Amino acid sequence: INITVDLIPPEKITYIDCLKVEEHKTSSISESHQLGTELLQGPAISEVAVYKAISLLQGLDKSMRGAMLVDAITGERLDTGDRGVRVSHMDSFDSYALGDNEHMREALVLASKVQSAHGIVGELCWSDDPDYTVGYVACNGVYHRIPNMKELGSDIGGRVFFVRSDIDYESVVQYLEKAPVLVQR
Fold first, then answer.
1. Domain extents in the chain
2. Is-contact 119 169, C-beta < 8 A?
3. Rg of the chain's alpha carbons, rounded to an integer?
4. Helix/strand/coil percentages in the chain, nearest 5
5. Do the Cβ atoms of 88 and 173 come closer than 8 Å?
6. Residue 8 and residue 76: Cα distance in Å, rounded?
7. What is the per-residue pLDDT across 110-142, written as a single tens digit (0 to 9) for each?
8. CB–CB of 60/126 below 8 Å?
9. Opening angle at CA 111, ends 132 and 119, nearest 5
């Protein structure tokens, strides 16, 4: 475990609103992936990019430590290596106001920061916890919680961040990894 403490002047903190939450019901992985595709796909994210993102996550042989950055139109992976983008330096004013489920609270704070990044237009995620099959997509200010995103017992999980084609993705990475953010309800 590596814990660091940084003194951050209040004026350097970005305050953002928490994403709205919508719960969905599905009965299979294929139905969940189809729902995720329908929720993400639109003017900002192509269907091809969503299918490629799902394929990238399904093709992992081990969980990534960070998230993949994917072009929202072409589906091309922009980051390199197994590390991916590690989102950090975020918290909420009152975590328990975000719900009782720890998985969901942590994911909601992270997704809220990710969606606040200039150039990010969506996110797809499922957990690496073998006992937790719920995943989510985040887009258009909403965190869509979706069950059955992976097989029960699978310890493979990951995240994909969809980035606009016209954005310098290095500035997105800088914000996600370094900018201090507090999420408010």
1. 10-184
2. yes
3. 16
4. 30, 25, 45
5. no
6. 36
7. 999 999 999 999 999 999 999 999 999 999 999
8. no
9. 140
Cα torsion 25, 29, 30, 34: sign: positive
**Among the listed residues 118, 101, 103, 95, the one whose alpha carbon sits nearest the alpha carbon of residue 172:** 118
3-class SS at 30?
Answer: helix
**Do 158 and 68 touch, CB atoms closer than 8 A?**
yes
The answer to whether residues 42 and 164 touch, using CB atoms and an 8 Å cutoff, is: no
Secondary structure letter of residue 117 according to DSSP:
S
- C-alpha 65/C-alpha 145 separation (Å) is 21
| pTM as predicted | 0.92
Calpha distance 15→57 (Å, rounded)? 31
Each residue of 105-116: pLDDT tens digit?
888 999 999 999
